[in-house]
Amino acid sequence: MAYTRKFSETKIWIPHGEEGTRRTLLEMHRLAREATSLPSIQFLAQTLSTPQGVENYIRQNWRLVPDPPDAEYILAPELQIELAIETGVFSGDCDDAATLAAAILAALNWPASIIAIRMPGASEFSHVFLRAYTDEGFVDIDPIVPYEHLPIRNHAQELVIHV
After folding, report:
1. d(CA 65, CA 112)
2. d(CA 14, CA 72)
3. pTM exceeds 0.85
């Protein structure tokens, strides 16, 4: 399976299975951390200021665009911002949304984790989202899943990378 940042020349080949998922999550973490000092990410962080603010904003401004069936792409947060300026919305799939949210919360030094889930009976991890930790519990940031289905609890296994 090919794995690359959209609109860049960087390609990383990842294995199938849990090791491939772990490497994807680590790449998402790297992209999010690299973006924390960008003025556009800093602006969003200061404007949105809380995990619930990030969840609400991304959910209201997100358009689901799946990756092709034979590739896994992650759009870097700085490219997300550029495209949102051009199109008026953020777009991509679950890993793109989680990476953008991770960058915004990392800019706030807010504790969060990128979480991949494998549904009961499935052999592969099939979804990823960001979980932010608050004094009251946690906030799942996931514009792909309808709000009434959050938090996602019906999964057999989580693979977690702390942001």
Report:
1. 24
2. 10
3. yes
